[in-house]
Structure to design on (187 residues):
């Protein structure tokens, strides 16, 4: 891993055994420890809360595909100009879709991509929820239902968008930087 994790020094001391084990699993599965995890490693409780929520939203049971969840992460991060998440989740979109240009279009402007009506509806809702959450009305939920989403799916879309809005704000506040490895993935 090269490059800085963040501009803040949160006094990371010795990592707990649980965190060392988790980081070793990341190295084994991903070939790296994402800098977002290193940024949270100063406090096991905060790291566990972050990873539990992330794993539930992004890997748990859902009517949304893994790719759709990554697309939500990218759409939110594009609106928020989150360098960390655009880099990391743009790489995930490239990898999961097998379509490197799609990952780049998602980062720049998802409306330029060749997406299904279902994906467009999901991302339009995500953008509105990110930019103007107080303006979400029943018609917005109805549009998602018309695109084939269940009420549970709508919950998952909203929860994923909300998580990445939070994550983007933390990343901006501490100047979190992506792992250099993400830039070359799935190209």
């Amino acid at each position: 891993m090269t490059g800085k994790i963040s501009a803040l020094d949160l006094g990371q001391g010795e990592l707990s055994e649980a965190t060392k084990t988790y980081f070793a699993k990341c190295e084994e599965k991903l070939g790296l420890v994402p800098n977002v995890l290193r940024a949270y490693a100063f406090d096991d409780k905060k790291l566990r809360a972050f990873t539990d929520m992330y794993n539930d939203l992004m890997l748990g049971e859902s009517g949304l595909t893994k790719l759709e969840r990554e697309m939500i992460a990218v759409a939110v991060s594009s609106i928020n100009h989150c360098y960390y998440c655009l880099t990391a989740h743009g790489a995930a979109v490239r990898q999961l879709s097998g379509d490197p240009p799609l990952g780049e279009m998602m980062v720049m402007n998802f409306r330029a991509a060749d997406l299904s009506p279902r994906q467009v509806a999901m991302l339009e809702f995500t953008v509105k929820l990110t930019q103007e959450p107080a303006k979400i009305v029943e018609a917005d939920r109805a549009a998602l239902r018309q695109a084939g989403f269940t009420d549970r799916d709508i919950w998952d879309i909203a929860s994923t968008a909300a998580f990445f809005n939070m994550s983007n704000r933390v990343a901006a506040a501490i100047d979190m930087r992506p792992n250099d490895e993400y830039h070359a993935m799935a190209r």
